[in-house]
Amino acid sequence: xxxxxxxxxxxxxxxxxxxxxxxxxxxxxxxxxxxxxxxxxxxxxxxxxxxxxxxxxxxxxxxxxxxxxxxxxxxxxxxxxxxxxxxx
Length: 88
Description:
Elements: H1 3-22, H2 25-40, H3 46-60, H4 68-87
Helix pairs in contact: 1-4, 2-3, 3-4
């Protein structure tokens, strides 16, 4: 895959596929942030969630076999983080 293919695939997943499955991406990250905040008893933002999910995908590149989905998903999560910051 070329870099543009990773980005294009991430764009489709973030904008279409996951929206149909999981609902609105920013609201989903807000919900996750609220639950993680309650669990850890600290404030976690939707932006934090998106960045930490990208870090999870990056961590997965350190073990096991190469999985293109980890790279696509990391791109997707960082684009969501950027959208969240732009909406603030």
